[in-house]
Every structure is written in C-alpha cells, then in structure tokens.
C-alpha cells in the first residue's frame, strides 16, 4: 500500500502511518499492519475498553499488540490502564521475585534449580525443574561438592542434561569441581546474585513443599522419599 503516498495530496491523518506504509495492506475494506488490524480514530476508545481486562498494563499491551494497531496505541493504552484502580493495585502487589525471576524455559528439564537443605539433622539435596516445578529430593551422606555432583549426575542420566543449572554460591556449587562438572557435562551454571535470595524463588518454594511433605510422612513405617 504505497501508491497513496506518491500523491502529495494524501490526507494528513495518514501522516502517522507513513513510516509503516510498507507493512500496510487492505483486506475487505479493513487496513492491516502485518497481522494487526488498524483501528480508526473513532473506534479507539471502544477498542481500549475491550482490550482492558484487569490483568495489568503489560498483559493488556501484549493482547493489543497481537491484534490491533494505531499510532501511539501503547501510550494511549498505558494512560487508559493507569486510570484503573484494580490494575494499579495489581501492579503494586507484584512480588519482587517476578522482577528478578529467570526467564521461563520452553520445555521440561531445560532449566533446573538446585539447593541443599536440612531437616531433623539430615542434609538433603533438592533438584527442581523450572518448567514443571517437579522436584527430586536426595538424602546426602555429606555436603561435599563431590556428593552433590554425584547425585546430580544420577538425575541428569535419568532425565537428560539440562541447558541451565541455577544454584546459590554455596561451597558445593562454587567449587572448582563443580566448574569442571559443568564443562564436562556441557551445561550453563548460573549462581543467583548474592543478597537476593528471591531470585531463586523456584527452589525455595520447592524446599518448603518438600519439608512439609517430609514432615507429614515422618510417621512410623512411612518413607519420606515417596511422600
Ligand atoms: Zn483494570
């Protein structure tokens, strides 16, 4: 849709579209920019109210960008949502974790978190899949790097080698041995930023769940591993 602009007489309301003219097309009398329907001026308020559900500004923007377009749509939508008390209070409640949380993996076992915890004087290793939240708990004879690595190797042998392993900076994970392990098994090892425990919230939540299940299971003749 470039013809109209060759004519210097084009109406000035088309000016904002000049920069995107190569992406425009017309189907059944509706103008599209790529896959997105261009909304005429007179309909924009109506569309704003349709896009708006109380999912907060980012969610609304995402929905809008998938199907509609007009110049300054993003800022008009931001203005519109900023007047909604529900969306505003939602934005306030966003926990810090989501700001720092790691990107979401696309498949199971691509990205795992691991940490140690103690319960009733015993040491355990927890290994959590970021995609499914599935986790495994291993009882540890000791908390050495070697022991932790051996347990992880067993999981990797069974479930595959993840692309990314997230842990804290504990001695088991910051050791030279662990560095070698990550090289030999070819995964990326990322340690959560010190002083920001939130950034490994996935693992912390799994530890809470594991402890709860294990306490529940600690009755006579019950096996904490099948809790
Ligand atoms: Zn709202």
UniProtKB/TrEMBL annotation:
Integrase catalytic domain ranges (all copies): 104-227
PROSITE patterns, per database record: INTEGRASE (PS50994)
Gene3D superfamilies named in the record: 1.10.340.70, Ribonuclease H-like superfamily/Ribonuclease H
Family annotation (InterPro entries): Integrase_cat-core (IPR001584), Integrase_H2C2 (IPR041588), Retrovirus_Pol_polyprotein (IPR050951), RNaseH-like_sf (IPR012337), RNaseH_sf (IPR036397)
Any GO molecular function: nucleic acid binding
GO BP: any one term: DNA integration
Name used for this protein in its record: Integrase catalytic domain-containing protein
